[in-house]
Each structure stands twice: as C-alpha cells, then as structure tokens.
Amino acid sequence: MERDPLLLIAFYNKKALGVRYLEGSLIKSGFRVYVLFLKNFNSRRPEPVRPEELLLLKGLVRRLKPGLIGLSVMSSLYLDSVVTVNSFLKEEFSIPVVWGGVYASMFPGSCLEHADFVLRGECEEAIVELSSAVLEGKDFTGIKNLAFKQPLQTGGSKIVINDLRPLCQDLDKLEYPISRSDNKFYIEGGRIGLGDPMADSVSYELSASRGCPFMCSYCCSINLKRMYAGCGKYLRFRSVASVIGELEEALANNRSIKVIHFWDEIFPDDSSWTAAFASQYKARIGLPFEIWAHPLRIKGSTISRLVDAGLYKVVMGIQSGSPRIRKDIFHRSETQEDILEAAKILHANKVPQIVYDFILRHPFESEDDIAQTYKLCTCLEKPFELQLHGLNFFPGADITAMAVKRDIGIMDVPDPDRTGRIGDIYKSYWGVKSSNRMINYWYSLIYLSQFRTGLLLSRYFNGTERSSLTVNAVLMLQKLYLPAARMRYLYYKLELLIRSASVRKNIAKGGRQAVQYNEGK
Ligand code: B12
Ligand code: SF4
C-alpha cells in the first residue's frame, strides 16, 4: 500500500534551502513530499499569518492528506506565526507535527510544548527515519537527532532528547536542493498558488559549504557549533564539481536566472578550491554572482580570480568601527587595519558592488563607539554601500546572556525565552532609533559617508561646532539622501542585468563550451 505523503512548511522564505534539501532526501528514499511556502519575506512590513490564509492551509491539508507535517523554524523572529499555524493544525487535524531548523535545534524543550516531535540539527537522514517510523507505525524512540515527549506511568510526560548523529562530512552525497514545481504551493496575500515560487526567479540561491569558522556573540551559528561538538568537523565544503553541477542543472531548468547568490556564511577562501571554482564557473556558468565575506578571509589572489569569473557583489561584515565593541561585545578579533586592508583588496580588484554591514544603535554602544564607526567609514575607499541595522537579541545567543548579566536595560533586551509579534521584533532589528539624539546624529553621519558628496558634507558638519541646528541639519540630510540610495540601487540592478544579458548572449552563441577547463578531470 502506498504510504501517506509528507507536507513540509517553510515560513517567510520561498528559497528555504534547508527544506529543499530535506525534500531531496525524502524523495530519494521513496516518499511523496509536498512543500508549502507560507508567506513571503518582507522585512519592511512583516505580517502575521492571516485567518483566511489559515483556511487555505486547511483546504490544502484536507486535499493532500499528509501523514506527517514538518514545520521549518529557522528563526525565532517569526515564532509567533509558527505557533499560530501549529495550534491551528492541532485544532483541525490529528496529524503528527515535527519541528526542525535552527531555533528548534536550540530549544527542543520549548518547541515540544507545541510540536509532537523535534528534530535537531541537519536532518537529511533523520527526517527519513522519522517519516518511516511515523507512517509505518514503527518505534521512533531511538532515532538520533530526535526529541520527543515520553509518557510517564505516573501520568504526565518527560522530554527525551536523543544524541545527534555525526555531521555529514561529504556534502556531495546530499541531493541537490529540489526546484520542481508539481509538488509545491505558496500562500501569500490571502491567496494560494500551485508551483515553486522560485520557478521563474531571476536569482538562483545555493550554498557551497556548511558552517562558519568564527564565533560572533550575536549569531546562532556558534550555538550550532557547540551543539555539534564531538560530531565531526563543523565547517565543511562541497567539491567544485558538485557546486557547478547544481548550477548547470538549475540553469537548464530555469532560463530566467540572471544572478547567482551564494548563501555560505563565509564563501570558501581556500586557494586551490577558489582557483578550480573560478575557472570552471567562468567556463560553464559565467553569470554574475554574489557572496558574503569576512575581513579576515579576504585575499587578493582569491578575489581577483573570483572577479574574473563573475563575482559581482560582496557583502562584508564590519559590524562596528569600535575595537571595544568588536572585541569585547561582538567577539570578533579583526583589527581596524585588517578591515581597511580587506576593503582595499575589494576595491583594488574592482568588485563592482561592495557592501559593508554594520550593527548599530544597540544598548552596548556609547557615543564614542559610534563616533569611531563614523571615523572608520571615512577611511574606506569609495565606492561602497552601507547596510545599517540594529541588534537582535536572539534567544540563546551569547550576546543575549551578556545583556541580561550586565543588566543593560531591561526595556531594550527581551527576555531570552520571550518572543513577540513579528512586526515588533523586526522593528528592533531594522528600524530601531535611539532615544539619544547624539547617537542618531553619528548614525546619520555614517549613513552620509557612503556617498561622495555626503562624505564631504559629513566632514563639514563633523568639523563645525555642534549645536541643535547642526544636529538637526545632519538628521535631515540623511533623509535627503534616501532618493540617492534608491537611484544607486536601480543603477546596480541595471548594470547586473546588462552583465547577465551579455553572458547569456555568449551562451547562446556557444561561448561557454568554447572555453576549456581541466580541473576535476
Ligand atoms: C543563508 C541564511 C539566510 C538566507 C536564507 C536563504 C535560504 N535559501 O534559505 C537569507 C539571507 C534569506 C536569510 C534570512 C533570514 N535569516 Co538567516 N541565515 C542563513 C544562514 C547563514 C544559513 C541557513 C542555511 O541555508 N543553511 C543551510 C541549510 C541546509 O540548513 P538549514 O536551513 O539549517 O536546514 C537544515 C536544518 O536546520 C534542518 N531543518 C530545517 N528546516 C527543517 C524542518 C523540519 C521539519 C526538520 C525536521 C528539519 C529542518 O534540516 C535542514 C537540512 O539539513 C543561517 C545560519 C545557520 N548556520 O543556519 C542564518 C540564520 C538562520 N538566519 C537568521 C535570521 C535571523 C534570519 C532573518 C530573520 C534575518 C532578518 N533579519 O530578516 C531572515 C529570516 C528568513 C526566514 N524567513 O527564515 C538567524 C536565525 C537566528 C534566530 N534565532 O532567529 C541565523 C541562525 C543566523 C544568525 N544571525 O544567527 N538567512
Ligand atoms: S562570521 Fe557571520 S556566520 Fe560566522 S559567526 Fe560571525 S555572524 Fe555568524
């Protein structure tokens, strides 16, 4: 008899790499799988799941009749929506529900207040084992990575958290994340659609590695690294052949792809890996691509090769120009010189779009700290863009414990176990405005420093005596530069399209095949 299908739900994430990996693994093991992408990601106006969207979900579950539903809880930022969906499913159906993802891995106990099961960590194997056990009514209690509630003879239940299996060291063994459309649905804006929302996307998103070598205090990557202690190497790389193979398959399936987005926490920087990657990418893919980078992992030889292969955009985390904040609060060891050197390399190698990421206006930061960030920004070579955001105190992150321990202002730091409405949480990440006018003043100077004329103006104001008039003028100037930021955004988009079109034209002429490569043979 055919087994019931499975339904995996991704929240606010139509790319949902993790869910697509699970889908690949389940399909390979003979399961029927459906995937629902529930709501789009919208950092400006994040929206809870609407009642009519829950009704659409109900109709879908009735139609598909899954034997197990998996909720992907990658972030605590939208936990509210996950709990709403979970409660709704529990009221309407008696289908077991399993949670997985970063948040579920960190807090299996709290998640089991809602879910029947939690699977911790990377789950390509564990989801297959749990699905077999649940659908075939077999014993699940010994499954590695699983957490569940065990009923007690005396009544009630206790939480059992099983050990983790070793981390998959050969990432090439995993199926490519799946992009087929006939088993996918999306719900957004009170409507349901059939098909993969990424099917005609102009970007393709993938990862060449898993893990990160760093230990930033505000990031949950270190919680995962600690959780996996003793389970094998945490930072792992795919082979170049596997990455290129995935991209070729994606390009064959979707002719609209114009840009490739690598979501590696830090893009691989190993010289021989990048040399092989650059030459094969240039020969067989060629489209402009984007990466995330770290100041301590930027080398001239690597960046020049990658730019030659099509590297278009680099987002490098600087996070603060204050050595005190970086070292003592964020636990980042790079010096001002390291940062300036990395920026110089990006500039010298003519990376077309250079973006620096900063976390500003948080309770640890003094006026002197933010003034140092401004100073650093004035030393960065142009052109560059700034991505400025606030600090989110994720439950379980080291910085959250630090904030609670130092009692730095209970209004500013949410209780580590508390989560709020999605809109409020996002405000504290992107939109937080300090109540301290001088902090806002420095923030505006930092913002201005990314534009050539803005830098001149910021220097002028920084050099004049501070009065309420000059402070107001700087705050106002920041607003006046918003259209310039918009224009720059459109310029980069257009440039990207032109680059991409020229690569496509070459491909159409057979240009790609004309280039020889020898690596990997
Ligand atoms: C790439 C990335 C992104 C990409 C996502 C691209 C994509 N294709 O999905 C982008 C930039 C879009 C993004 C956005 C956000 N991200 Co992000 N992101 C990451 C990053 C670096 C890697 C995630 C990834 O792709 N991993 C590779 C895949 C294969 O692994 P995975 O997703 O974890 O999935 C595996 C397991 O978790 C598990 N699993 C996953 N889902 C399920 C479901 C079930 C049922 C089961 C059983 C198992 C399971 O099995 C999967 C396969 O092994 C992580 C850091 C990290 N180490 O996880 C942060 C991270 C997950 N992001 C984070 C955050 C905060 C966000 C945002 C909220 C940022 C923002 N302010 O808007 C948004 C939220 C997006 C969303 N709706 O989920 C935080 C979450 C922390 C927290 N406690 O909330 C992390 C941990 C980074 C950090 N700063 O600490 N992110
Ligand atoms: S470098 Fe990025 S991914 Fe790595 S620990 Fe720091 S913030 Fe997290």
Note down, in words, how this protein is organized.
The protein is α/β, with parallel strands linked by helices. The protein has two domains: 168 residues, Rossmann fold (3-Layer(aba) Sandwich); 249 residues, pyruvate-formate lyase- activating enzyme. The strands form three sheets. A nine-stranded mixed β-sheet has the order 7-6-5-4-3-1-2-8-9, with helices on both faces. It has a six-stranded parallel β-sheet with strand order 10-13-14-15-16-17. A two-stranded antiparallel ribbon has the order 11-12. Helix 1 links the parallel strand 1 and strand 2. Helix 8 packs parallel to helix 9 and helix 9 packs parallel to helix 10. It starts with 5 loop residues before the first strand and ends in a 7-residue tail after the last helix. 39% of the residues are buried. The C terminus is likely disordered. The site of cobalamin (B12) has 40 residues, from strand 1, helix 1, strand 3, strand 4 and helix 4.
CATH architecture classification name of the largest domain: Alpha-Beta Horseshoe
- Helical percent range? 40-55%
Poorly predicted runs of 5 or more residues: 410-418, 513-521
What is the tally of beta strands? 17
Largest sheet: 9 strands, mixed
Would you give the CATH topology of the largest domain?
A: pyruvate-formate lyase- activating enzyme
Strand content: 15-25%
- Helices and strands: which structural class? alpha/beta
What is the C-alpha radius of gyration, as a whole number of Å? 24 Å
